[in-house]
């Protein structure tokens, strides 16, 4: 059975001898570090696609490259973004020649967005290269450590409500 350490008060985690609130602060610090690194990587990959592309535009571009044609309203819902933000980003992507728009045959009032094939290939290539960088540290981990990390990360993601 798993032992749970409450993150309130001054409980002590038996494995480390550290105060539970200190452990929570250390975990928060590590999560912030990962978040900053992901943000920097996202900025860098967006700029590799085009120097004027911002991370939000890259996220939308990447989604279209993966999922194929879709409406801007689908992008809004999928990424929980503001409609105006998506509209501006789509306009930028179209101005850069990375995304095309055509009437939706199922609804004449709507339009379908698609990534230009060469751009989709570039996005996939850059993401594959970044993915290799992300998983590289795991090569030196034991299978048990990687399994523990994955289990704990899943546990964290199940419990977080953002």
How would you describe the overall organization of this protein?
The protein has helices at residues 20-49, 55-67, 72-79, 83-95, 117-135, 143-159, and strands spanning 99-104, 107-115. The chain has 162 residues and is mostly helical. The protein has a domain at 20-127: Arc Repressor Mutant, subunit A, CATH 1.10.10. It has a two-stranded antiparallel sheet with strand order 1-2. Helix 2 crosses helix 5. The two termini are 28 Å apart.
- Uncertain spans: 1-10
What is the CATH class of one domain? Mainly Alpha
CATH topology of one domain: Arc Repressor Mutant, subunit A
Outline: elongated
Q: Give helix % range.
A: 55-70%
Mean pLDDT across all amino acids: 89
Q: What is the number of beta strands?
A: 2
Topology readout:
Layout: H1 20-49, H2 55-67, H3 72-79, H4 83-95, E1 99-104, E2 107-115, H5 117-135, H6 143-159
Antiparallel strand pairs: 1-2
Helix pairs in contact: 1-5, 2-4, 2-5, 3-4
Quick overview:
It is built from 6 helices and 2 strands; from the N terminus they run ααααββαα. The chain has helices at residues 20-49, 55-67, 72-79, 83-95, 117-135, 143-159; strands at 99-104, 107-115. A two-stranded antiparallel sheet has the order 1-2.
Characteristic terms for this protein:
single chain, about 160 residues, Arc Repressor Mutant, subunit A, 2 strands, about 60% helix, disordered N terminus
């Amino acid at each position: 059975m798993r032992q749970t350490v409450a993150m309130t008060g001054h409980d002590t985690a038996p494995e480390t001898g550290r105060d539970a609130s200190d452990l929570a602060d250390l975990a928060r610090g590590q999560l912030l570090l990962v978040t900053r690194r992901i943000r920097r990587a996202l900025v860098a990959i967006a700029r590799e696609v085009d120097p004027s592309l911002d991370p939000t535009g890259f996220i939308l571009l990447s989604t279209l490259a993966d999922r194929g044609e879709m409406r801007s309203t689908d992008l809004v819902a999928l990424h929980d973004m503001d409609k105006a933000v998506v509209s501006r980003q789509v306009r930028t992507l179209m101005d850069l020649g990375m995304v095309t728009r055509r009437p939706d045959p199922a609804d004449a009032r709507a339009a379908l967005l698609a990534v230009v094939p060469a751009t989709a290939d570039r996005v996939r290539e850059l993401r594959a290269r970044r993915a290799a960088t992300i998983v590289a540290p795991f090569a030196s981990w034991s299978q048990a450590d990687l399994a523990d990390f994955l289990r704990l990360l899943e546990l964290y993601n199940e419990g977080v409500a953002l």
